[in-house]
Amino acid sequence: MDYLIRFVQMHESFRQAETDAIADLEGLQMQWLHYSADAPFAIIRFTGPTGETTSAARTLIARSILATSIHELWGTGPDYPTLHTSIRALTSAQWPAYQHTSFRFTIDSYHSSRPLASQHTLIESFAYMSFTGPIAMRNPANHFTVFEESRLDAPTPHRLYFGRLVGASGRKQALVKYNLKKRTYIATTSMDAELSLVTANLAQAAAGKLIYDPFMGTGSFPLACAHFGATVFGSDLDGRSIRGQGARSVKANFEQYATASNYLGGFVADLTNTPLRHTRTLDGIICDPPYGVREGLKVLGSTRVALKEVVYLSDGTPAHLGANYIPPKKGYRFERMLDDVLSFAAEGLVEGGRLCMWMPVAGAGEEAEYEIPRHPALRLVSECTQDFNKWSRRLLTYARCADGEVDADALLAYRARRSVLSEAEIGPEVKTTANNLNAFRKRYFEGFRERSAESRCD
Amino acid sequence: MKLLTLNFLTCARKTCKSLPAAFPLHPREAELEQVETDMNAALIKNILPRLEWDAMKTVTTELGLPNLPAETPAPEDLATADGEPSQTLKDLHVLLMDTAVVSGKLVCGNCGHEYAVKEGIANFLLPSHMV
């Protein structure tokens, strides 16, 4: 039997990627029979060797954030006569099994609505299935739904489905629980609950896995991964964001959600000078690098020549040994930071381990031109887009290839290119501004004006 | 930070990073705390083959904690015959997941640089002459 997944009609480009990631994590083989970004109903089929697909469907939906439920597909058609014929052909043999159990019917209309009287008439038209069990509006044994898909402002639906509810997702509970408004400790750039949890799904966070966030901030991603049972740790260049203030800290967030057992701790570090060993220990890396707009993009070091030597205080002690010493930081190229994340992931992830990385892009939708950062040892799994009016951000998910699959020549060439790049930047000290280092930041503060419009004004 | 984390960390300086002498970092004047956490057998089973066992032993000895077995415990030693967590697993859990460094220093065995740990958070930032 095929299944209908009821998605929410938002974050459309994340929906299939999330479901695919869960299927892959749970070892379920499935194919998409019908999917459209314009509608919340999708049809899938399990293609694995197991005959029992009900439990597969429940497993698939349980941890989904962008889908609300999954239904056995009992029939489909462009109009009601065809739908009824389809239901008779597909499921008439099964009707007796449901004859005496409690049940309920609902109508799920997308882009349209039906008055109550019309709903009743519609439900009565299914009377040929002759269910005689009690009708139960609460906790029915079987919940049947008529799905009507219409185009905006169209008088009648153009596609209909009929399904029996098999499983619901934990979306609602998770979103209520992780709502930022109720979180003990947040900051200006905390990722919202929904996208944090979706990102954790794409990273395939699960019990027994170890996941690291190199730009932890207030811990949104580690918290979401811990929700799915993963053990997490993170770091940030700014220790204040990890420590928080008084009772508000990253640790307090984990305590709020009763996942402190899954939190190994946070430390203050810079990804370009990370204390993590070059060894393949991580199952997942999940991060939202600072875009350089609200959070500055900095790394350790200084462009001032005087600071390349040990600095002594007036009493003769080296400044860096003081208890409250704060090391200098300098601006950094955004593209290089992304490359650093990829290199770090290639060295730190176990085979099949996943990297989920957000990046901002000037321009929204299909028009945006940007280059997806690549690494020979990482395979791009999915690319999801969240559009804002003039800019968008992308969630890029990569999987670490097996060593045998990595093209050795490509890896050598990649390393050579990177070392050339870093030498070019070490060269003569040029006065670098945040805008020069970060094209996205520059365009952001220019208001993403069209380049052609700009030249016309001139 | 939980003791498990120490097995992933070495000196942040690029000149030390790949040297065996820099790993593990040596805890000094370390104040430990023990907080009981939920048993996570799946994690320990998953992570055990990725640990540097000799570094684990060095750190536990330096912290004055009970000695670890000479070799990495085999996966079959983690559960008893009836599938319950074995004593080996429980001991490992207490050591890796329940024990945390609250304050003190982590010292590189190669360059001697000291990284401070305060309120359970280690600081690996380097002054610019070490970057």
UniProtKB/TrEMBL annotation, chain A:
InterPro entries according to UniProt: DNA_methylase_N6_adenine_CS, RlmKL-like_Mtase, SAM-dependent_MTases_sf, TRMT11, TRMT11_N
Entry's localization field: Cytoplasm
Highest taxon of the lineage: Eukaryota
Stored PROSITE patterns: N6_MTASE (PS00092), SAM_MT_TRM11 (PS51627)
BP GO terms, sorted: tRNA methylation
Recorded coiled-coil stretches: none
GO cellular component, one term: tRNA (m2G10) methyltransferase complex
Species of provenance: Baudoinia panamericana (strain UAMH 10762)
Protein name, as recorded: tRNA (guanine(10)-N(2))-methyltransferase
Residues in tRNA (guanine(10)-N(2))-methyltransferase TRMT11 N-terminal domain copies: 1-171
A Gene Ontology molecular function term of the record: tRNA binding
EC number: 2.1.1.214
Pfam assignment, any one: UPF0020
Keywords assigned: Cytoplasm, Methyltransferase, RNA-binding, S-adenosyl-L-methionine, Transferase, tRNA processing, tRNA-binding
Automatic annotation (TrEMBL), chain B:
Start and end residues of each stretch annotated as Disordered: 65-84
One Gene Ontology MF term: protein heterodimerization activity
Domain of life: Eukaryota
GO cellular component, one term: tRNA (m2G10) methyltransferase complex
Single GO BP term: maturation of LSU-rRNA
Pfam families in the cross-refs: Trm112p
PANTHER family for this protein: MULTIFUNCTIONAL METHYLTRANSFERASE SUBUNIT TRM112-LIKE PROTEIN, UPF0315 PROTEIN-RELATED
Entry similarity comment: Belongs to the TRM112 family.
Protein's recorded name: Trm112p-like protein
Organism encoding this protein: Baudoinia panamericana (strain UAMH 10762) (Angels' share fungus)
